[in-house]
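task queued by scheduler; priority normal; single chain, no ligands, no partner chains; default sampling; output format set to structure tokens
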Amino acid sequence: SRGLRPSVSCPNSVTRPEAGTFWPLMVLRMVVLPAPFGPVSTRISPAFKSNETLRTVTLSRPFYISLREVTNAEFRRFRPNHASGFVDKRSIDLDAQAVTGVGWLDAVQYCNWLSEQEGLPVAYEQKDGRWALKSPATTGYRLPTEAEWEYAARFAGAGRMRRYDWGDALPVPPGHANLAGSEAAAAVERLLDGWTDDYQAVAPPGKFTPNALGLFDMTGNVSEWTHDVYASFIEPTPATDPLGPAGNGARRVIKGSSWRTAAFGELRAAWREGFEGSSQDVGFRVRSEERRVGKE
């Protein structure tokens, strides 16, 4: 699902979060993405990498995705002893900061816990020694698929998509993202040429300009876990609602740049990488099936 570009029209509007929708327990704001969407084609960026495949994808169902990344405080309601740690002797463990130092399985287990707190059926189950989505799909929380994440990052309304979450061209608009700017010189080996922002490392989600859907930090702050198993090559055959390659590979797809990003090519919403373990620049956000929600 690299480099999404619509070849048929999208619905004319998408729910924008003026007052917002949320789940009462976590006060977790969500926005609904319309469907059907697609088919879409890929690999339109001149900076595409060898692990980005020309492909056609259709997303057939609307879904909710959180407006921001999960924070330390929210994650500690699930796992009280979690600590995101320090970067250059500065804490990235403050309640309001995006949670980091969590692996894919940590994120999956958090999704199931959050579903249980809301009285929803869990989305994941452990079967034959591996964690997988339940079938048929439930209304519980889960990680977005790679295709869903990229759609959310690139959506520009009325059948339009963007190369970056702010538009189609560089430079990054001032105040748009938490990246490896001059303020991070003591914490990173490389800096993004000409960039500066207010955060040396992880920022509280929502401090920078949102994208067209009102989603925060789809560029910068922390890279995000998706549901998909990582493969460096994806078959270029059309797919509807893809869940990623079959199997239980240890490496999962992460999407989105982070506070350590110092390469302009990695700012594209099409950028993808395989990762396992945990890192101080990787976190996550959640998604769920469309369903009736409360209004603030």
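post-processing summary
- The helical segments are 72-78, 104-117, 146-154.
- The chain has three helices and 19 strands.
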